[in-house]
Design goal:
The chain folds into two domains: 232 residues, no CATH class; 90 residues, SH3 type barrels (Roll). Helix 3 packs antiparallel against helix 5, helix 7 packs across helix 8 and helix 8 runs parallel beside helix 10. The radius of gyration is 28 Å and the shape is elongated. The longest helix has 48 residues. The chain has 366 residues and is α+β, with helices and mostly antiparallel strands. Strands 1-2-3-4-5-6 form a six-stranded antiparallel β-sheet.
Length: 366
């Protein structure tokens, strides 16, 4: 009897996995097509006004936009897909028949969890290694054609560029490499060794040097201090214009290992954006896990046959999806401006919805 039952279980697993992956990819393609239409409608004026080549638009932008958009909301596509096809199975009494044959609900979850884990693994690999490279092409296209007035201007920059070496800039424009009210200090054993101040600092890309105007240089040796002033000074420092500040979307072009190394350097510099970078790192890990958690919610939610049928389940599923997105936005605000540890904030939505999953699993049909 046991031998005869085993092939039926394998067929059921394959059936659910096929339903899961098939519905997921169908939903994914459908929503991507809609997103491209809306995005193209929004950019059509720029395309004609700036005479953007169709080849570049397709190759550099949309071929890179598709994996970025698809992976950004993969967990929500998984959730909607599971709610849709599981609700149909319940409405056709397939779930009742499966459980009535003696299969437990936890056993029924196995092919669901396998599919969710498979999609989550691919999602992590994409977000950590593939999509950062795709983002280079997508953002390069945007900066070339769609963000012609894009400007990176920073104020009150404080950085530690190397152990014991600190810089300050009242303002800095990265495109021109020009800064105002510049100071660099060298501290060793809590004592000032060197301090250089200038009204202006400008990066000379040809000579590979920094040009300072109206500078004052102070050197300290014990209680002795030497002062040197001048109108201009050409010198080199252990930092480049790109090291002083980055735009928020620059981290989207870094793979997982590059992001880790970048965070270490930014922590050393004392960057005020470290929380944002840490949140991005943990978000990349939390989002794939959300595929499993939302699947644990979707199966017991849609596994009951109700009077409203598929439509009621999809409505509830959309409500939960929007709630999850809202939780993610709240967590981002807490991480970057609310003083909450970014690692904890990135996992808060998963933790809250995992509790919801446990509640639904306890009331799932047996």
């Amino acid at each position: 009897m046991k031998f005869r039952w085993k092939p039926r279980l394998l067929l059921l697993d394959k059936y659910i996995i096929k339903k899961f992956l098939g519905t997921f990819f169908y939903t994914l393609l459908l929503i991507i097509a809609i997103a491209i239409v809306f995005d193209l409608t929004e950019k059509v004026d720029d395309i004609f006004e700036k005479d953007i080549p169709v080849g570049e638009l397709v190759r550099d932008y949309y071929l890179n936009f598709i994996p970025y958009f698809a992976n950004l909301f993969t967990h929500l596509f998984v959730f909607i897909s599971v709610v849709f096809f599981t609700s149909k199975m319940a409405n056709q009494t397939e779930i009742v028949a499966i459980l009535g044959s003696g299969m437990s609900f936890p056993r029924l979850l196995r092919p669901y969890l396998f599919s969710a884990a498979l999609i989550g693994s691919f999602s992590f690999l994409l977000s950590s290694f593939v999509i950062p490279r795709a983002n280079e092409g997508r953002m390069g296209f945007e900066y070339k054609y769609l963000k012609t007035n894009f400007n990176r201007f920073y104020s009150n920059l404080h950085r530690q560029v190397s152990p014991g070496t600190f810089i300050y800039l009242e303002s800095f424009k990265q495109e021109t490499g020009v800064g105002f009210r510049f100071t660099i200090e060298d501290l060793r054993k809590q004592q000032m060794q060197y301090k250089l101040s200038a009204d202006y600092i400008r990066w000379d890309s040809v000579g590979g040097k920094w040009k300072l105007e109206n500078y004052v240089m102070r050197k300290f040796q014990g209680k002795k201090e030497s002062i040197r002033k001048g109108a201009s000074l050409d010198t080199t420092f252990a930092f480049l214009p790109g090291d002083l500040a980055l735009a928020d979307d620059d981290v989207e072009m870094m793979n997982f290992f590059e992001l880790n190394r970048f965070i270490e350097r930014e922590e050393l510099k004392g960057s005020e954006f470290v929380d944002f970078y840490l949140y991005e790192k943990h978000r990349r890990m939390a989002s794939p896990v959300a595929n499993i958690i939302l699947t644990l919610i979707a199966v017991p939610l849609a596994g009951r046959k109700v009077r409203g049928g598929v439509g009621l389940h999809i409505g509830i599923g959309l409500g939960i999806s929007f709630a999850y997105v809202m939780f993610m936005q709240v967590a981002f605000v807490f991480a970057t401006g609310g003083g909450v540890n970014p690692a904890i904030a990135a996992w808060i939505p998963n933790a809250c919805f995992f509790v919801l999953a446990l509640i639904l699993l306890r009331s799932a049909p047996k």
